[in-house]
TrEMBL record:
<dbReference type="InterPro" id="IPR004255">
    <property type="entry name" value="O-acyltransferase_WSD1_N"/>
</dbReference>
<dbReference type="InterPro" id="IPR045034">
    <property type="entry name" value="O-acyltransferase_WSD1-like"/>
</dbReference>
<keyword id="KW-0012">Acyltransferase</keyword>
<keyword id="KW-0808">Transferase</keyword>
<dbReference type="InterPro" id="IPR023213">
    <property type="entry name" value="CAT-like_dom_sf"/>
</dbReference>
<dbReference type="GO" id="GO:0005886">
    <property type="term" value="C:plasma membrane"/>
</dbReference>
<comment type="pathway">
    <text>Glycerolipid metabolism; triacylglycerol biosynthesis.</text>
</comment>
<dbReference type="GO" id="GO:0019432">
    <property type="term" value="P:triglyceride biosynthetic process"/>
</dbReference>
<dbReference type="Pfam" id="PF03007">
    <property type="entry name" value="WS_DGAT_cat"/>
</dbReference>
<feature type="domain" description="O-acyltransferase WSD1-like N-terminal">
    <location>
        <begin position="127"/>
        <end position="302"/>
    </location>
</feature>
<dbReference type="GO" id="GO:0004144">
    <property type="term" value="F:diacylglycerol O-acyltransferase activity"/>
</dbReference>
<protein>
    <recommendedName>
        <fullName>diacylglycerol O-acyltransferase</fullName>
        <ecNumber>2.3.1.20</ecNumber>
    </recommendedName>
</protein>
<comment type="pathway">
    <text>Lipid metabolism.</text>
</comment>
Amino acid sequence: MDYPKEIGGLRWRKTSSLKPINVGEANARKERGEEEELLSPAARLFHEPNFNVYIIAILGCKTRIDPDLVRAKLPHTLLKHPRFSSLQVSVEGGKEEKQMKWVPTAVNLDNHVIVPPEIDQSTFAGDADAGKKFVEDYISDLTKTKIDGSKQPLWDLHLLNVRTSEPDAEAVGVFRIHHSLGDGVSLTSLLLACTRQIADPDALPTIPTPRKKKEEGLLAGGGRNGGVLGRGFWRAVVAVWTAAVLMWNTAVDVAAFILTAIWVEDTKTPLKGPHGVEFLPRRFVWKTMSLDDFKLVKNAMNALPKLG
């Protein structure tokens, strides 16, 4: 993540176009006639100088992480996804515009799987809070730097074999991914696709899905022909009603959004920061909370309905 040095209101300034990146692999593929896919408008937006965003994912492990094992498994899982094995190259487009394309490249995992050598395990012996603070400081430092996209794909994995105060947490993996590679939903799906079941190492994890409700009553009919006609009639009624409700809810939401943007301010809560807080360096902290703690936060924010 990039943060301005000065803290204050939003500052508008003319930004220069992204500079082209010279990549030998890109030229070689171009000579071979291989196609290169353009970045989507959303992915392109995340490269703007004032909107350079990274995603930080934190995973706790019950056992210590073996870096060699991680490097051995990544080519068979994560690197099979073209976004994680491609550079984002700026090229000349039509009408003197510059475009960005995905260019496949060879990935050197030594540049992406990072194990800090300066960790002294004896420092955290008998003090779980010290390990937790170390991880928080490490992640905070990650938010102040960025990955050089001209040399490698925009992601890295940091393996911290540090015991924290969380139960059974012997190590922490910190995944830093540029937002142009995907959003939360796509990255979660990718994470599940890279995992396997304990009982069957070759099987993908299963996710419980709700069963389809049986349509009873509305789809019931007296006779054979009457049943078909009845089902068609009630389906048409349900479709018209659903469309009417959707249009009404959309109109209400649009009106509420416009009125909120013009007259209404955000509700002041203990979680709302002062003006300019969005430009401050981030610090990621976490805490194991019970349901009573969630109720306390909900009630402090005057959320409805009241709990407890």
